[in-house]
Amino acid sequence: MKLELVNGRGLPNVRVDRNQLETAIMNLAVNARDAMAPNGGKLTIRTKLLPAADVEAQGTPGLVAQDHVLIEVADTGPGVPADIVEKIFDPFFTTKDEGKGTGLGLSTVHGIIGQMGGAITVENAPEGGAVFKICLPAHQGGLDEEEAPAPVLAPSGDYSGTGRILVVEDEDPVRAFVVATLERSGYEVTPAEDGVAALEILKEDQDFDLILTDVMMPEIDGPSLIQKARAEYGVGSSVIFMSGYAEAAVRDQMDQIGGVAYIQKPFPMAELGARVKDALLAQAKAKS
Questions:
Q1: What is the dihedral of CA 10, 13, 19, 22, to 10 degrees?
Q2: Range list for CATH 3.30.565.10 in the chain
Q3: Bond into 38 cis (ω within 30)
Q4: Helix (H) or strand (E) holding 284
Q5: Chain-wide mean pLDDT for the chain?
Q6: Predicted confidence (pLDDT) at residue 146 exceeds the cutoff of 50
Q7: Could you count the other beta carbons within 10 Å of the beta carbon of residue 37?
Q8: What is the distance of C-alpha 101 from the center of its chain?
Q9: pLDDT: is 72 or 143 the higher one?
Q10: Is the CATH number 3.40.50.2300 carried by domain 164-287?
Q11: CA-CA distance, 276 to 157, in Å (whole number)?
C-alpha cells in the first residue's frame, strides 16, 4: 500500500484531543488498508481549509457556519456500496467477516469527531474508492489565551469491599493491573482474557456482582458480550465498560445496552476502586 500525505498551507488551529484524533485517523487508515486488500492501492490523507461559506453550502448537520479544517482520508478500494452508506457509522454495523470486526470502529470515530465539535461523512470518489471527510471547526483565538484548567485530583478514600467480579480484558498488562487492584481491595476476582472466555465462564457461573469489561476486543466486543450474557444466561450483574475512547464516543453503545457505567483508560487505582464501589453500592441499593 502506498501512503500519500497532502498538507494544506496556512491552516488555522483546531482544538482537539490529539490522541483521540490520531486514533480516529488510524482507524480510518486501517479500514482503508483492509478495503484495498489483497492487491493494495494508495491511501491519501489530505488537509485543507474549508471556508465558512462552503460549510454553510454543504449543509452538514451539526456544523456551524464558520471556517473548518477538512481532513480527507481517501483510498483506491472498491468504495462503499450505496445500500450501506447511510448506516456505515451505526453502532455494531460492520462489513467485515464474522470474527474480524466488532462494528464499533466507525461508530467510535463518529463519536470522537462529534465530541470535538466536528462531523465526519463518507462518499465515493468518481475515479473509485471511498473518501472519508472529517470537518473540525477552526479555533477562534490564540493557543495560550485561556487559563489552564484546574488539575483533576484522583479520588481518595476507602475503596475496599466484598463481592465477586468478572474482569474481561484482552490486554495482559491491563488485565493483571485491574485484577491485582481489585484483589487488594478485598474482592473475589475472576479474570477472562477475552469475550469468548468470559462467556464460557458465565455459561457455568452467573453469580457475579459485577462484570468489568473492555469495549473493543477481538471476536466478541464488550457490548455484545453483555447482551449475550443477559439474553442467554440471565446474567443480572452490574456492568462497567472500560475503554481508551472518551465516554461520548461509546455513549450510543452504552445506551443500547442500558444500565452500565463507564471508566476511561488509563485510570489510576483510586478511580477504579471508586467506580467499582459505586457500582456495587448502587446494585445493593436497587435490590433492597
A1: -40
A2: 2-137
A3: yes
A4: helix 269-287
A5: 84
A6: no
A7: 11
A8: 13
A9: 72
A10: yes
A11: 13
pLDDT, tens only, 100-111: 443 346 877 888
Q: Measured between alpha carbons, how far is 73 from 52 in angstroms, rounded to an integer? A: 21
Q: Which tens digits make up the pLDDT trace of 149-207?
A: 443 333 445 778 899 999 999 888 788 888 988 998 999 999 999 999 999 999 999 99
How much of the chain, in percent, has pLDDT values that exceed 70?
87
| CATH 3.40.50.2300 intervals, the chain | 164-287
Q: State the amino acid at position 17 in one-letter form.
A: D
Report d(CA 267, CA 57) in Å as an integer: 43
Cα torsion through 250, 255, 257, 259, rounded to 10? 110
Q: What is the three-class DSSP state of 55?
A: helix
Number of other residues whose CB lies within 10 A of the CB of residue 139 = 16
Cβ neighbors of 99 (< 8 A, separation 6 or more) are 218, 219
Sheet holding 210-214, edge to edge: 188-192, 164-168, 210-214, 238-243, 260-264
Question: Do 1 and 35 form a contact (C-beta atoms < 8 A)?
Answer: no
According to CATH, the topology of domain 2-137 is Heat Shock Protein 90 (3.30.565)
| pLDDT at residue 100, as a whole number | 44
Contact criterion met (CB below 8 Å) for 261 and 275? yes
Cell numbers found for residue 257:
445496552
User: How much is the pLDDT for 99?
Assistant: 41
DSSP string, 188-254: EEEEESSHHHHHHHHHH----SEEEEESS-SSS-HHHHHHHHHHHH----EEEEEESS-GGGGHHHH
**Cell of residue 73, nine digits:** 482520508
What is the band of 83 on the pLDDT scale with cuts at 50, 70, 90?
confident
